[in-house]
# Entry
Amino acid sequence: MSRAQRYLLFVVVALGAVAMMFPFLWTVVTSITPDGSLADGPSLIVTNPTLDAYRYLFDALPMARIILNSVLVAVACTALQLLTGAMAGYAFARLQFRGKSVVFAGYLATLMVPLQVLVVPLFIQFRDWNLHDTMFALIAPAAASAFGVFLLRQAIEAVPREFDEAATIDGAGHLRIFALVVVPLIRPALATAGILAFMASWNSFLWPLVVIRSPEFQTLPLGLATLQGQFTTQWDVVMAGSVVSIIPIALVYLFAQRHVIAGVSHTGLK
# Structure
């Protein structure tokens, strides 16, 4: 590649990065703009920046409780999806049982079923069990993920079986092989699945909207939805809430970015 081509590629990548970052910058700028409005179009110039929108946000909503709910739900869902996904992925990748291919194909077929189809029967089931409007109702439906099973199964398939055979010779069973041999070798895939699970749970809106009625169980998407009025909306406050909701996801992704890239490149999802 010539120097001119490298410069051209750098310019194209830089422009793409600016285009990707502009909505986030606009969100931050609007949140610190006095009486921020979207009527004047996007602008990154603030004459008198202020944090009044953030103060109003934390005064108008019990943000500490809402953020804690979101963190608890997201962490619980992520941990459960990693546990169930890794164990199911190991079973599909290493164990031999009748109908394995059919079961795995049927499991993957659930990816084609949208959440909107499942909301009503799920709600009726939780209502009949008197578990609606609880933290359990927010966590249980996301305890397993078909995509997570597929991703981790692909990662386990890439682990040489010679490691399993060596551990078997040393007297290890499936549980020890899974915990001490396989799991340490698929950490990049676990990081990828964890990031995706955390983001999906953190941004979930439809299911919490249906199953939650009590304010003390509200998550961030539900709390931020209450900021939009029927006739007028304080967009600086809405943008302040958006910034608060974006920061944890950005931090988690930046922390695990190296593992995510490695996980995607080693599991066939290039």
Q: What stands out?
A: The mean pLDDT is 86. Residues 191 and 256 are 6 Å apart (CA to CA). The radius of gyration is 23 Å. The first helix runs from residue 3 to 31.
